[in-house]
Sequence to fold (102 residues):
Amino acid sequence: MTQQLEVLMNAHDWGQELCPELVVLDPDGWDRMNLEQSLDERVSRSEFLLRLGRSTVRFPNGFDVEALLKEISNLTSKIAEKGFTPDPLPSGKAGMGRHKRP
Fold:
């Protein structure tokens, strides 16, 4: 059985792939203390969507926001099922969970 490689890209590249007209108005899902570095970090699609889900975003008319929200909700549920809790970011905003609950 072959293992699939996980694609990693920065926020700009994921945004372009998801929807070129996407505009992040308030990047709450990223580390605001080191925003440029956080946006340049190469992450998986799942991590990008979780960060996007915590941000204020504008999509163009006709974009299927419902499907995107459902995908983000499913990711969040999977993380919760595994017992992960959010990482605190320096700004006080929550990051993607990596710590198991005690």
Notes: The chain is about 40% helix and 10% strand. The chain has a mean pLDDT of 84.
